[in-house]
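RECORD TYPE: inverse folding
INPUT: structure tokens
STRUCTURE:
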């Protein structure tokens, strides 16, 4: 394992102790999922060649979906991809009126990440890098401002075949004008348009001289347009990561609203599989219910059910990682031991990693987890990881204590504490109410 920096160490420990995925340092604790990661790497290879992919990452709450998405993001960034990511909410979804559809695009663009700025907010950096490269190339040959703008038009000419390609090109040129003239308001206006933050065409026309804005109905077309720009700017492609599909299936009460969102997913699948998009990959993540529920999940929409159906021959332990759906299998007991050993190493930093707890202590901890939580531990280890990090923290701050004294049956979460409880949902359009424990 590579040496961990103090910043990475604290980020990993703080995040895991709170039950969230750390933004950095994932490679220090990653275990298992080798086949799944390799399948996604093949997808990225395809995008680099101008292809596309659509994947659905499925797993229970706490099974590691978000961790897996972050891991794929890191892999994509290292391969010089641009990554967009967002979580679906009831006010931010794939289809919706009143700005709800536009909001998902705005969130994606705000979280835009590149290798040089993996934490997000890299939209302006991406544009400035592309513009600076062209500017330097033109001026080194004696060109002036007008020559640079003409070079922009030539570079962006392939985008004119996309919806609103002309306005997109014009906004990028306006951003450059603001950049070289130190006109920050003009740059900000261009970024507002690119992030879909204009709500009226009049305001956008007054600020930038464009006739269109990104709205609820057109945001997906602009994602495809932006994917084309990323490749022109020298990147390998665009990866779009969208989490919390369960909001669409089990938080939207109206059947028509759900179906409209499922229709949006179907359009993405059809475009990617039918060759109407290029250089882009989509990853959706959700629980098994949001995929398999025949009444509310994606499988309730017949056209979607056909496209995400599993290979009928992939059963009895046989796997097919070319299927659109990747199911995150349980971690094995061996994987869990390695995971906790990695956490122990991260916590120790440069000190002896067995100073606080030995291999025997980890085995004892795992046995307690298995006795209290059962097999569910190996499927949703989030709470146990939190408990283990808490144990390390206490041992570190109380030198007189040993793991033998602290590791009692009530020191790890019980099954009732670790299993998530879904909230009660009223289903107005079907005159039913459902809840799940």
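DESIGNED SEQUENCE:
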């Amino acid at each position: 394992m590579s040496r961990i920096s103090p910043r990475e160490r604290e980020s990993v420990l703080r995040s895991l102790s709170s039950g969230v995925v750390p933004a950095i340092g994932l490679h220090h604790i990653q275990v298992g999922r080798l086949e799944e990661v390799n399948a996604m790497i093949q997808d990225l290879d395809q995008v680099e060649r101008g292809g596309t992919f659509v994947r659905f990452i499925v797993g229970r709450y706490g099974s590691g979906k978000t961790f897996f998405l972050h891991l794929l993001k890191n892999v994509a960034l290292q391969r010089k991809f641009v990554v967009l990511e967002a979580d679906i909410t009831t006010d931010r979804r794939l289809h919706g009126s009143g700005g709800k559809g536009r909001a998902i695009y705005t969130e994606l663009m705000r979280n835009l990440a590149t290798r040089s700025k993996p934490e997000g907010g890299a939209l302006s950096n991406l544009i400035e890098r592309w513009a600076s490269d062209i500017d330097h190339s033109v001026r080194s040959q004696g060109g002036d401002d007008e020559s640079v703008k003409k070079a922009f038009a030539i570079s962006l000419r392939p985008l004119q075949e996309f919806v609103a390609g002309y306005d997109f090109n014009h906004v990028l040129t306006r951003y450059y004008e603001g950049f070289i003239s130190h006109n920050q308001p003009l740059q900000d206006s261009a970024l507002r348009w690119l992030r879909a933050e204009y709500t009226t065409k009049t305001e956008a026309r007054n600020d930038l001289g464009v006739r269109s804005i990104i709205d609820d109905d057109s945001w997906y077309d602009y994602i495809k347009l932006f994917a084309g720009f990323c490749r022109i700017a020298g990147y390998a492609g665009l990866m779009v990561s969208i989490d919390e599909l369960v909001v669409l299936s089990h938080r939207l009460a109206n059947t028509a609203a759900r179906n409209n969102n499922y229709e949006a997913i179907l359009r993405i699948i059809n475009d990617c599989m039918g060759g109407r998009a290029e250089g882009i990959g989509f990853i959706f993540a959700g629980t098994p219910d949001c995929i398999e529920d025949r009444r509310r999940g994606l499988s309730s929409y017949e056209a979607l059910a056909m496209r995400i159906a599993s290979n009928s021959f992939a059963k009895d332990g046989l796997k097919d990682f070319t299927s659109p759906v990747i199911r995150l299998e349980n971690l094995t007991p061996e994987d869990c031991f390695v995971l906790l050993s990695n956490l122990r190493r991260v916590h120790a930093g440069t000190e002896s990693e067995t100073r606080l707890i030995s291999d025997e202590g980890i085995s004892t901890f795992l046995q307690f987890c298995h006795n209290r939580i059962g097999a569910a531990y190996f499927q949703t280890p989030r709470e146990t990881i939190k408990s283990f990090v808490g144990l390390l923290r206490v041992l570190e701050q109380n030198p007189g204590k040993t793991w033998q004294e602290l590791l009692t049956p009530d020191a790890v979460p019980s099954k009732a504490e670790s299993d998530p409880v879904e909230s009660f949902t009223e289903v107005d359009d079907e005159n039913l109410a459902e809840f799940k424990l």
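NOTES: The longest helix spans residues 255-273.
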